[in-house]
Sequence to fold (254 residues):
Amino acid sequence: MTSILVTGGTGTLGRPTVSQLQAAGHHLRILSRNPAAPTTETPRAGSTAPDHVVADLSTGAGVAAAVEGVEVIVHLATSQGAKDIVQTKNLLAAAAGVRHLVLMSIAGIDRVPLGYYRAKLESERLVAESGTPYTILRATQFHNLLDKVLTGQRFLPLVLAPAVQLQPIAVEEVATRIAELVDAQPVNGRVADIGGPERRPVPEFARLWKQARAVRRPVVPLRLPGRIFRAYAAGDATVEGPAYGRITFAEYLR
Fold:
């Protein structure tokens, strides 16, 4: 049994990750700023409910106490821009003695010129130079993010779908990979990026979504100028090689 601190353990990826680590018999701590935040679902038979620790990665308050005594940190918490970098710095400052830090990151952050991606790339660099043994995993966008973007247009008379390539993956499959990495030795680098089973233009995904959600509005491909759009259109946010994920977007929608 390994003692693990999970940041972002109540989030979209955090919940299935915590569930899988619990099922494997690990002892978990979930870090949250909110004293009332739920930890996770009801523990499975034979597993132990995770501890809940209150700390603020943005200020560093309580982080040292949260990290004390843990063997592995799974860093899933993420924020926009410079805040993500600050949170990573504060976590690393408390991580001396930890034998493995698993950092979740995003496929294509070194190719797509988004500010959020530049900050995530800097967080990767900080981890790599920290001296803490580490493993970095990059994954493509989650199914539920694409679903959320399309659902968010419910008040428009049409469905705008950027004419770019994506390769969405199920969060449960990303959680499975994280659990595998927790049980492995640090690689002190990146493992192979993972993505879903389909590389498609977003308008095709939008039509699958439209059918599954019984939406009648037309899907309209959207093309925009600029380097960011060109990078996505070129497939820079997808993953080369065999797909890791097996759950398709249509299966997610069902």
Remarks:
- The chain has a mean pLDDT of 94.
- Residues 213 and 253 are 8 Å apart (CA to CA).
- The first helix runs from residue 14 to 23.
- The chain is about 35% helix and 20% strand.
